[in-house]
Structure formats: C-alpha cells, structure tokens
Amino acid sequence: MTMKTILLELARNPDHPEGSSAHGYIFRAPLTPDGMLDKAAVSAHQAECTVRRFWAGQPDEMGHLRHRRNGSWTFHYTGMDSDEDEPIFKFDRHHFVEGEYVSITEHDGVQRTFRVASVK
After folding, report:
1. Could you report the average pLDDT of every consecutive run of 10 residues in the chain (120 residues)?
2. Computed from CA positions of residues 18, 21, 24, 25, in that sequence, does the dihedral angle turn out positive or negative?
3. Model pTM?
4. How far apart are CA 20 and CA 38, in angstroms?
5. Phi, psi at 8, each rounded to 5°
6. Model pLDDT for residues 65-95, shown as the tens digit of each residue
7. Which candidate, 53, 42, 18, 20, places its Cα nearest to that of 91?
8. How far is CA 44 from CA 71, 92, 115, in A?
9. CA-to-CA distance for 32 and 9, rounded, in angstroms?
10. Would you put residue 71 in left (φ > 0), alpha (ψ -120 to 50) or beta?
11. Could you give the CA distance from residue 33 to residue 119 in angstroms, rounded to a whole number?
12. How far apart are CA 54 and CA 27, in angstroms?
C-alpha cells in the first residue's frame, strides 16, 4: 500500500474561467501503482484516509474518505450527517495523476470539476 496526498483544485468554470487554487480539496488515500484508489487498503486504513476542503472565504472542513456499501465514494465531514456527504462521480475509476479531472457534488448540490494538481 502506498498512501498518497492528492491536491484537487477547482477547474475552469463560468465563475472561475482560469480555475482556482483557492478552492479545492486535499485528501490522503492509498493508491495502486497506476494511480487508482486501492479499495482494500482504504477499508483497512479508513482513519488515515482524511480530507480537507478549502474554499476561499469559508472555514476549512475536515473529514474522511468513505466507501459506501452501494459502491459509491464520498467525502464525509466531521459534525455533519451522512446525507450531507459529498458524492464523488466514478471515484474508483479515476487515475490520480497530475492533470486528470474529478467531479464532486458539493454541499450546495452543484457538481463541480476539479483538476488533480499534485500527487505526493
């Protein structure tokens, strides 16, 4: 298992035509050698799979990466109910390498696209 720290930054959109490094996520997760989530390792190391959501003008939110029984993935934040989790579209099919894109449905119900800015 190789635990990685992945930085996601807001991709270009109508509100941020150049994208934004002030809006995004930093999360830790075990990845396979080709950059995909290692599902078994996530289950075995759940407490280490953390997330921090940062958004300009708002306090950071801290939580964990969760794999649900139905096969979906979410970011779950401390102090929030499960119905407030942020679902991540086809998270287990993504290769987490710089330049790739990930879609996340945020608290406001809007699905936004984020670019993988770094994997360390």
Report:
1. 93 94 97 90 93 96 88 83 74 88 88 96
2. positive
3. 0.91
4. 28
5. -110, 130
6. 988 877 788 888 987 776 667 778 777 788 8
7. 42
8. 16, 16, 27
9. 22
10. left
11. 12
12. 11
Give the Cα separation of 96 and 28 in Å (integer). Answer: 11
Q: Six-digit token pair at 111?
A: 């699905």
Contacts 24+ apart (CB under 8 A), 49-58: 51/25, 51/26, 51/27, 51/75, 51/77, 52/25, 52/26, 52/27, 53/24, 53/25, 53/77, 53/86, 54/22, 54/23, 54/24, 54/25, 54/26, 55/22, 55/23, 55/24, 56/20, 56/22, 56/23
| Residue 53 and residue 26 in contact, taking contact as beta carbons nearer than 8 Å | no
Quick one: pLDDT at residue 114? Answer: 96
